[in-house]
Amino acid sequence: EDEARLLVEADGDDLEALVARRVGGEPLEWILGWAWFGTEDGDGLRVVVRPGVFVPRGRTIELALAALEVLPPDGVVVELCCGSGAISAYLLHREPGISVHAADIDSAAVACARENLPTAAVYDGDLFAPLPASLRGTVDVVVANTPYVPSDQVALMPPEARDHEPLHTLDGGPDGLDLLRRIAAEARDWLKPGGVVLIE
To answer: pLDDT tens digits for 40-69?
Structure first.
C-alpha cells in the first residue's frame, strides 16, 4: 500500500508504466528518483537515486549516526564507495559545518552524489586514490558502505538487488571482505591522530 501510494504521487503521465517497471523488479527508488535516508522519528532527507546507482538501505542510517558520534562539528569526513552520497548528505544535514569528501569508482554514482552533495568534493576513482594529497593526515572519520556479500552468495540476494543493481556494489569478493581489508590497510595515512574508520 505504501509503494502504491508513492507511485500514484509520482505519476507524471503514465502510472501503468511505473507499475510495470516495479512489477518487473526495478527498485522503487529508481522509479521514484529518490530514497528516504533518515531515522524512524523522521529526521532525514530525500536523497536523489538514479537508475544504475546503488540504493541506500535504511539500516545504513546506523553507520551515519555512528559517524556523527565521533565527528567534530567542524571535522573532515571521507565517504568511500559513496554511491548516491546518502551518508555524507545526512551528515551535512546534521552538521553543516563539516568538510565532506566522497569517492566512488562508478561514474553514474559520482554524478548522482554530486547532485546530493553540491557543497562537497566528490571524486571519481578507486577508494583513496582520487583524493587530494592535502587531505593526508587530516581526516577525522572515514566512512564506507562497501560491497560485502561473498561472491558465491550474490545469487541468493533478492532479485531487486541482484538483477538490477550493479554487481560491483554488491560483490565483496570470496569472503565479502576485499574492500574492507583495503580500506583498513590504507586509512592510516589519511586519518589524523585519533581518527576513526567506520564500515558497514
So the answer is: 898 999 999 999 999 999 999 999 999 999
Beta bridge partners of 44: 38
Identify the helix (H) or strand (E) that includes residue 104: strand 99-104
Q: How far are the Cα atoms of 73, 178, 195 from residue 169, in angstroms, in the given order?
A: 30, 12, 26
**pLDDT given for residue 157 in this prediction:** 94
Q: Can you tell me whether residue 132 is helix, strand or coil?
A: coil
Greatest pairwise CA separation for the chain in angstroms: 55
What 3-state DSSP class applies to 168?
A: helix
pTM attached to this predicted model? 0.93
With beta carbons less than 8 A apart as the criterion, state whether 75 and 96 touch.
no
- Residue 12 pLDDT: 66
Going by the DSSP 8-state scheme, the letter that residue 171 receives in this structure is: B
8 Å CB contact between 108 and 53: yes
